[in-house]
Amino acid sequence: MTLMTTPYYFQKQLIMNNLHCIGNISYWQFIIQMDTNNIYINHTFQKQTYLSQFEIMTSNGRLKLSIPTQKSTRKRMYNEVLIDYSNNWQIEVWRSIQNAYSKSPFFLHYGYKLEEVILEKHTKLIDLNWALFQVLCQCIHKSLNVELEEDENVMYNEIELENLAAYPQVFDDRWEFESNLSIIDVLFNLGPETIDYLLRIRV
Questions:
Q1: How far apart are alpha carbons 72 and 120 in whole angstroms?
Q2: 99 with 56: CB under 8 angstroms?
Q3: In Å, what is the CA distance from 113 to each residue of 99, 135, 145, 155, 202?
Q4: According to DSSP H, which parts of 102-157 are helical?
């Protein structure tokens, strides 16, 4: 996995190379402020990255959830990686999200939309991630004319923003604020204010 250490003005463009699984706050900050309408997906798959993982906040603390992929396809290009349905991961992932956020202020407003996508049987990982991306854009109320660019060769990149502003979280009575979780943590807790939160982030 290649982690970029280049200056911010270069990183802002590079982060757009990838389509993450749900995506964390850093990722979505770049998404809504990006200067391009393309997300580049012509790169090899990197396991144990944000291409197939995302983090939520639970009563027991931070939890990383993963989309299982078929082992025989993990060394292929990203758009060739197949999802592994040998176990009941969809129910497990959705129950984890539901248990974590069912008491959040905006779970009823947005939860069912994510549930539909997660429980649908997508063949390829990239198809699931693209469907999640589109529904999250709708929930955030961000109109994005974004297309997947499949021709240009790119590298996989991750960027982590630090010192993000705190916002109310479901379990903040027992845990200190956890920063840079997946965007659904912000969405379920802030609702329509999510986009304002993202726009206020300055690097």
A1: 22
A2: no
A3: 16, 7, 20, 31, 29
A4: 107-119, 125-140
Q: Say what the pTM is.
A: 0.89
* Residue ranges of domains in the chain: 8-200
What is the C-alpha end-to-end distance of the chain, expressed in Å? 24
pLDDT digit string (tens) for the chain, length 203 residues: 444 443 443 444 444 468 999 999 999 998 887 766 788 898 999 999 999 999 999 999 999 999 999 999 999 999 999 999 999 999 999 999 999 999 999 999 999 999 999 999 999 999 999 999 999 999 998 777 788 888 778 888 887 888 899 999 999 999 999 999 999 999 999 999 999 999 998 76
Indicate the SS3 state at residue 196.
helix
Among 43, 111, 108, 122, smallest CA distance to 75 is for 43
